[in-house]
Structure formats: C-alpha cells, structure tokens
Amino acid sequence: MGEMRISLVATVKDDAEHIQAFLASLAAQKLPPDEVIVVDGGSTDGTLDALRKAEGIRLHVEPGANIARGRNIAIASASHDVIAVTDADCELEPDWLERLVEPLRAGADVAMGVSRPIVESFLQGCMAAASLPDPEEIGEATFMPSSRSVAFRRSAIEAAGGYPEWLDIGEDMYVNHRWRELGVDMRLASEAVVRWRLRPTIAETWTQYFRYARGDATARMYPQRHALRMAVYAGLLFALSSRRRWVLAFAALAGAAYAAKPVKRALARFDEPVERAAAVVAVPALMAFVDAAKMAGYLSGLAKRARS
User: What's the alpha-carbon Rg for the chain, to the nearest Å?
Assistant: First the structure.
C-alpha cells in the first residue's frame, strides 16, 4: 500500500467520566493516527470541554445523532482512505492501531480487532465470562467485530452503504453482515485490543441486551438464532412442568453443557476461591437473565417492525 495514512474516528455522548482515559490511551499509541475525528451526539456533562481542550482532535458536534449517524459524519470528513473506528468510552492498548492495520497492509479490506473487558466488580467479571470469548475461541471466518475495534478501507464501507442511520443499535453488526454477503476480505487482528467497560448494574445489563435484540429484529438479523433460543427455553419450561425425572435430567445436562464454556472462562479469570465458587452459580444465572432480555427485546423489535 506504500505509505499508509490513517484516519481514526470515534463517537461519544455524555461520558465525561471516561473521556480522559480514552484520550490518554489515544496519545499513547505506538503508531499515531494521521488524524483523529470525534463526533459528539450532544453531550451536556463536560465531555465536550475535555474534547475541545485535547490536542489533535477534530471535533464535530451533532446533537441527536445516533452512533451510525456519528460514524458516517466522521468517515465523510476523514481525509484518508484507511479508517480505524473505536468508541470514545473505551481504552486502547498502546499497540492497538499498529496491530489493527497489519491485515490492511497485507491486502485485507477489513481488519477485525477485538475487545477485552474492563472488570471493576464481580458482576462485570461474570458478565465478561458469559459474553466475551477468549482469543482462542474466535474464528476469523465467522467473527463479527464490534466497531469499537475495527479498521477498513473507505471502499469497503462504501460498498456496505455506510452505517445504517435508521438503526439505533446493532449498526456495526448490520455492516458486518453486508461485508460477509459481499465477500469482502475480512481478516482477524487478534492482538489489536480495545478495553471496554461492561454495564455496572443488573438493570443496565438488561437494557443493553434488550436493545441489542430489538435492533436485531428491526434489521432482520439472526432470526434463526433468536428462534432457536425461544424454542430451547420453551422446551425447558415444558421439562419443568412435566416433572418427569428423565426429562428433568436431560434438561439439567443440556443446561450444564450450555453454560460449561462461560463457567470455565470465569474459573480461569477469578483468583479467589470464594469468587470462583460464586461464579459457578452466578454465570449460568446471568446467562439465563441475558437470554430473557434478548427474547423480550426481540419480540419488542418484531412488534415495532410490524407496526412500521
């Protein structure tokens, strides 16, 4: 590609608590981007003040813009054809950008970085084990990267039609599906790590996954996956209501198999014996809780889609 020039784009709204950590991690990049563009959706909590004081930030303020709109604005104003995308509430590992663009240097159209959790509580540790796979579990051919850790050539995002501004959440998964359908060259950059904060409370976790699933329904994504989840839980309710020992035993074995990998992650990530023991119970319970949020969100999205 010759000399690669990189535009880094990010979106943010009302995250004064974490914006300084993001800016510090950006300044610490071993490979600095050639420009940084941040689109703010109308912050009122001090985020804008921090961004205006930061050196090297080109700031756009677009009150009311959703994430997709913010990313499209940033990409449209970017000067370069290689674009790295993240979120301004994350923390970038020092070699994130350097590692992220390696697949592009090798000829890829899209470089898929990864996310790792910032764990500040037992709940977040259990949620990380339940929802975030370990690096060795990620397969390049099927991985769907979050746009908090991705880079691409401008031609790739243009081929996908940009981020869908009609979709308030799940916009990055929609683009991933378009890339897979188009046969875009997507390569994994497993050492390009962004640190990401999980939701700190049960209520916020419910809202997060409810909204993810509602976005899936709105955008017609993962219909088979959601149908299978609902069928499995319907079968579980049948098993519990039947009270037949062999049915209950089969359901228990199936549930244990379903939770085995996340529980194994939790046991590897917690050091204290008490936390490890608690995680064996908490992780399956959280998985069921998140599945309930997804089922409720998906049904809500189907209803919304039917109305519109």
Answer: 21
| Residue ranges for the chain with pLDDT beneath 50 | 1
What is the per-residue pLDDT for 277? Answer: 96
Report pLDDT for 242: 78
Structural element, H or E, at residue 300: helix 273-307
| Closest C-alpha to 67, from 175, 206, 201 | 175
How far is Cα 82 from Cα 93, in angstroms, rounded to an integer? Answer: 19
The domain segmentation of the chain, as residue ranges, is 6-197, 202-307
Range 6-197 classified under CATH 3.40.50.300: no
- Contacts of 230-235 with CB under 8 Å at 24 or more apart are 230/295, 230/298, 233/291, 233/295
Q: What is the C-alpha separation between 211 and 195, in angstroms, rounded?
A: 22
Q: Could you report the per-residue pLDDT of 64-110, keeping only the tens digit for each? A: 999 999 999 999 999 999 999 999 999 999 999 999 999 999 999 99
